[in-house]
Amino acid sequence: MANWQIWIVLAALLLVAEMLAPGFWLACVAIGCLSAGIAGLLPIGLVGQVAVFALTTVGSLLGLRPLLVRRFLHARGSEVRTNVDALIGKTGYVSLRIEAGARQGRVIVDGEDWRGVSVDNATLEPGTKVTVLQVDGTTLVVEREEQG
C-alpha cells in the first residue's frame, strides 16, 4: 500500500472516530491526514508528507476548529447541559410529601425518582407540579410551579 493510501485510510478512520468523540479534535487531524494523502501524490517524499500533515493539522486546529465549535457546540449561545445539570429547569411532580425543612420528600422528573426539598421550605403535597431549580448531590431543590 502506498503512503498516500495510508494517509487517506487514516483520514477516513479519524472521521468515523470523530462521530463518537466530541470536540472536533479528530476531524482536524483527519484534515491533516487527507492533505498529506493528497501531497503523497506529488514527488515530495515522506518527510514532505509529514510536514504537510503537521502544517494542515495545526492550521485546522487554529482556524477551522474554533468555527466548528461556535457553530455546532455553542449554538444559540448556550452549552449543552448533561447529567444532573440537564434536570435544572425541568418540570416534575411531588410523589411523596415534602415537609418544610425536611429532606424526606420525593420528586419524579422525567420518570426518575429523586429526593426533593422545597426552595422556600414550603410543604408540598403529592401531585404538586414543581420546577427543578438546582441539584444538590442527589437532592433536587424545587419550587411549586405557578398555575396559569
Q: Care to describe what's here?
A:
The protein has 148 residues and is α+β, with helices and mostly antiparallel strands. Helix content is 41%, strand content 22%. The protein folds into two domains: 3-77, no CATH class; 83-144, OB fold (Dihydrolipoamide Acetyltransferase, E2P). The protein has helices at 3-18, 25-39, 45-73; strands at residues 91-96, 105-109, 112-118, 129-136, 139-144. The protein has a five-stranded mixed beta barrel. Strand 1 (91-96) and strand 2 form a beta hairpin. Helix 2 (25-39) runs antiparallel to helix 3 (45-73). The radius of gyration is 26 Å and the shape is rod-shaped. The model has no long low-confidence stretch (mean pLDDT 88).
Q: Any key phrases for this structure?
A:
148 residues; alpha+beta; OB fold (Dihydrolipoamide Acetyltransferase, E2P); 2 domains; five-stranded mixed barrel; 3 helices; 5 strands; rod-shaped
Short description:
The chain is of the alpha+beta class and 148 residues long. The chain has three helices and five strands. The protein folds into two domains: 3-77, no CATH class; 83-144, OB fold (Dihydrolipoamide Acetyltransferase, E2P) (Beta Barrel).
The poorly predicted ranges are: none
Total number of beta strands: 5
Following the backbone from N to C, one meets helices and strands in this order, namely HHHEEEEE
Strand content: 15-25%
Largest sheet: 5 strands, mixed, barrel
The overall pLDDT, averaged over residues, is: 88
What is the tally of helical segments?
3
Decide which structural class fits the backbone.
Answer: alpha+beta
What is the share of helical residues? 40-55%
Strand order of the largest sheet: 1-2-3-5-4
| Shape label | rod-shaped
Number of domains: 2
> What is the terminal separation in angstroms?
69 Å
Radius of gyration: 26 Å
